[in-house]
Design goal:
441 residues, Cytochrome Bc1 Complex, Chain A, domain 1, 5-stranded mixed β-sheet, alpha+beta, 6-stranded mixed β-sheet
């Protein structure tokens, strides 16, 4: 559930961070054209580096999974080091590498001591991974097999089957429609040539954001960024994604030999720069983002016992991400739970929250997640998100005031204009025999 709520959790976390003591975020553009965000901390002799590219699965084109495949290969050998040598090189200095691809973005990160030689080895390794990955044939085949195993396992998890079906139906021909990892067919067909071309187009400085958090001064941070991006072409930023269009409402039932049944009700939601961002965000916390204390939690689980869990979330992205209601319930209670979820949400869309509900939500959102609980890595994730979505540097400082300024009328207006007019896509997975999964599952 935390992964599903990531987009909203970033907002919640920054509210608390801003209230406690906002970290000073500095920004500049590297000589290669990458945007850099930097926060100095001196509590530990550590540095967290995260390089984010506008190179998520929305850029896959005709090869679903290409972004994920390419991103995974970056740590499988680079420059003079094969996969084993690169791993030994960083592990010998206690350097931790991580990476991931999502729909909007792909990133690579390193956590290292600021002492030498660890710091130099971390930056040099990152430079080679980003600018000169090997894409060796044996690594491609190894990652292909790993991805195929993951895809087959995913097809046996009802919640993931439901999510894939929802995106496929809600987004149609839009680049957000297909699974981030691709499909069995597309992964089997992936070529080294396609991977190299994707890397050359999207892993360029003009398409990158660098986030640094740790115990180095500004001058050192600038030098490290220049070194890390030295082997990368300047290139061009990725083009703007198309605006997704609402689709006709429909209900899709996927028989699946599992209990509980998984329910998902989806509509198009909001982007990171949506003018209704805060009314929709605060309203969702009241409706279903607050888990068991939310309107959905009270009506579906607490009062009627119709679900094990029930919640709702927005996933704001470059363009409108989904707004989704989710529940897990016994197979025999699926239709009853679905009816209550629909009735409760429809009423909320029409009437909005009460003043008391709004005040409780604002108090919870503004008062949570103190700064002392956030690690350098978490701060790095947050400022990387800010840089990627081009949010202002004072974004976190102004969050409490923006949440406090939301009114009942603003919430009601935003939900009636944006969410209520859309017919939902409903996906029900469970309560029956399995089926042969199609390419988009």
């Amino acid at each position: 559930m935390l992964r599903l709520l990531l987009g909203c959790c970033l907002v919640v976390g920054w509210v608390g961070l801003a209230q406690a003591a906002s970290p000073v975020v500095q920004s500049w553009v590297s000589s290669q054209g990458a945007r850099v965000l930097y926060v100095h901390t001196d509590s530990l002799p550590m540095l967290d580096i995260r390089v984010v590219f506008n190179a998520g699965s929305a850029r896959d084109g005709v090869s679903p999974g290409l972004a994920s495949f390419t991103n995974t290969l970056l740590i499988e050998g680079a420059g003079d080091w094969d996969a084993q040598a690169l791993a030994a090189r960083v592990e010998g200095q206690g350097i931790r590498l991580s990476y991931a691809a999502h729909r909007d973005m792909a990133w690579v990160a390193a956590r290292t001591l600021t002492q030498q030689p660890a710091l130099s080895i971390a930056v040099e390794s990152m430079a080679q991974m980003l600018g000169a990955p090997r894409f060796a044939a044996e690594s491609i085949q190894q990652i292909r097999q790993q991805l195929l195993v993951s895809l087959r396992q995913r097809a046996q998890v009802p919640s993931q089957v439901a999510a894939d079906q929802l995106y496929h139906t809600l987004y149609g021909k839009h680049p957000y429609a297909h699974p981030v990892m691709g499909t069995i067919e597309s992964v089997q067909a992936m070529t080294r040539q396609a991977i190299q071309a994707f890397h050359q187009r999207y892993y360029v400085a003009a398409n990158a954001v660098v986030a640094l958090v740790g115990d180095v001064d500004r001058a050192t941070a600038e030098q490290l960024v220049e070194q890390m991006l030295s082997g990368m072409a300047q290139g061009q930023a990725a083009p703007t994604l198309p605006t997704p269009k609402p689709v006709s409402g429909q209900q899709i039932s996927v028989p699946f030999p599992a209990s509980p049944t998984h329910l998902m009700i989806g509509r198009l939601g909001m982007s990171r720069h949506d003018p209704d961002y805060f009314p929709l965000y605060v309203g969702n916390h009241i409706l279903g983002g607050g888990a068991l204390t939310s309107i959905l939690g009270e009506a579906v689980r607490n009062q009627r016992g119709l679900s094990y869990s029930v919640y709702s979330y927005f996933r704001p992205m470059q363009v409108a991400g989904p707004f989704t209601l989710v529940a897990q319930t016994q197979n025999s209670q699926a239709q009853a739970a679905l009816q209550v979820m629909q009735a409760v949400s429809d009423q909320f869309f029409t009437t909005g929250p009460t003043v008391a509900q709004l005040q409780a939500a604002q108090q919870h959102l503004i008062g949570g997640f103190p700064l002392q609980g956030a690690s350098n890595r978490q701060i790095g994730e947050y400022i990387a998100m800010m840089g990627f979505y081009r949010l202002p540097l004072d974004w976190l400082e102004t969050l409490p005031d923006k949440i406090a300024a939301v009114s009942v009328e603003q919430i009601r207006s935003a939900w009636q204009r944006r969410i209520c007019p859309q017919s939902p896509v409903t996906v029900i997975v469970g309560g029956g025999e399995n089926r042969a999964l199609t390419a988009h599952d």
